[in-house]
Amino acid sequence: MSEHEHTEHIVSPGMYLAIITTLLILTGLTVGAAFVNLGRFNIAVALLIATVKATLVVLIFMHAKYAPERTKLVIIAGIFWLALLLFMTLSDYASRVDYRGVRYPMTQIISHTLGNRG
């Protein structure tokens, strides 16, 4: 048997308790933010909180923080692929034209904001 047989990282129960407490606080913050009218920033705040929670879960509970470099590369590639798909979907949504020929809906908002009427 080699001396590097057990290479898993052991996370202390205190760390798990701190992370679960943080996740519960962030969940409460998400619920609280749902009752506050932040205008068009409501979705951005909710997604930011969700991203922080997902990052904590992946790094600590799924042990990605202590994973080999190859595993980290796969995780980063997955995040890049998700970002690429979201970018393509949102760019399609922003340039959408419905069956009546009306540019809907983001293009109208962008045109109105920039002062381009048409």
What's the structural blueprint in terms of helices and strands?
Blueprint: H1 13-34, H2 42-61, H3 69-94, H4 106-114
Helix pairs in contact: 1-2
Overview of the molecule:
This protein is mainly alpha-helical and 118 residues long. The protein folds into two domains: 1-67; 68-118, no CATH class. Helix content is 65%, strand content 0%. It contains four helices and no strands. It has helices at 13-34, 42-61, 69-94, 106-114. α1 (13-34) packs antiparallel against α2 (42-61). The mean pLDDT is 83.
Indicate how many domains the architecture comprises: 2
**C-alpha geometry:** flat
Number of continuous helical runs: 4
Largest sheet: none
Proportion of residues in extended strands: under 5%
Helix content: 55-70%
Through-space gap between termini:
74 Å
Overall radius of gyration: 21 Å
Order of helices and strands: HHHH
Uncertain stretches of 5 or more adjacent residues: none
Mean pLDDT figure: 83
- What is the β-strand count? 0
Class from helix and strand fractions: mainly alpha
In short:
The chain has four helices and no strands. It is mostly helical and 118 residues long. The protein is flat.
Q: What characteristics describe this protein?
A:
118 residues, mainly alpha, 2 domains, 4 helices, 65% helix, flat
